[in-house]
Amino acid sequence: MVILFLFLLFFPRTPSDSKSKDEPTYRLAIAVFLVSILHLVLTFLLSVMVIYLYRSHLSSWANFLGILGTCLAAIQFLPQIWTTWKLQEVGSLSIPMMCIQTPGSFVWVGSLAARFGWEGWSTWGIYLVTGLLQGCLLAMGIAFELRARRKRTAGDGGANGDSNGNADEANGNAHGHVTGEGDHERTVLLGNER
């Protein structure tokens, strides 16, 4: 919920005429926020109703919520996987963070599976799916980073930058802006330079 409120709080509120048609609007951000709140309220009310009125269906309701959570988690990861594949670069994803979090999700799956067994698949299944999807992102990220390093070392041997291959700073691009086309992972996100 905190992330949802921060998303809405920090969403850029620029006039719609200055944005391109591909960029999301503040109206869309509010719609996402309201749909998320509606989902939370409906799930809570239906869960209370099942607990008190249809107790015999509690296991089916839990399984449904597990499947729904797994589908929503997959929907959350799929755009990031597609974007990373399309760009063929890591962007702002943190490989060290994913190196910690990905195995951690599988440890968590093992812990839950040992505790709940196969009957608790709806509890640990969501973590298994998200761990696999994050592992996919991690594998792509490592492959793209290794390829980029090979290109940098084979391409110019550091001739355009300093001995560490920092061509941006050597070319007068101290803020990390790419002088070519489009944005780069070092481009200032909110557009306010200090």
TrEMBL record:
InterPro entries hit by this protein: LAAT-1, PQ-loop_rpt
Superkingdom in the source lineage: Eukaryota
Location in the cell: Membrane
Topology in the lipid bilayer: Multi-pass membrane protein
Bias type Low complexity, positions: 161-176
TM regions (residue ranges): 28-54, 61-82, 124-144
Positions of the UniProt region annotated as Disordered: 155-194
Signal peptide annotation: 1-16
Biased composition (Basic and acidic residues): 178-194
A GO term from the CC aspect: membrane
Keywords linked to the UniProt accession: Membrane, Signal, Transmembrane, Transmembrane helix
Presence of the UniProt keyword Transmembrane helix in the record: yes
Record-given protein name: PQ loop repeat protein
